[in-house]
Amino acid sequence: MLKLFIIVFFPLNMLMANDYISQRQDSMQKFNKLMRSANQMIKNNEINEDLSQIYTDIENIMIEYPTLFPDDSFKGKTKASEDIISNREKFNEISLQTAEIAKLASFAAANKDTKLLQQSHQNLYSSCKSCHSRFRN
Length: 137
Known about the structure:
This protein has helices spanning 2-43, 49-64, 83-86, 88-110, 114-135. It is mostly helical and 137 residues long.
């Protein structure tokens, strides 16, 4: 019975970790695609509700993002650093700050506040760099 448990449990555990890794990668791909769309819209001076929605979508990604890093999800093909486990509060704080920046960008786009929008957009990029430099292998 113990052998069966070990044979079934370990592959199942690895599958669950890979599922979280896949979800994280999907989230970041969506985030990057949304940022590219936002860049293009800003360059084309398309400051409107569609742009506002892009930032709302980014906000939602970043609210969910910390839930995709359970302690047992650092096995397999991941670029995430295990430093997330020992610095969970800081990781969650950066994610929440990024969500707040996206919310501010959404507000700026909805209100056609170009100055606030450009600053918020730049802050989103800075937030990415900050998190990746600290929590990515």
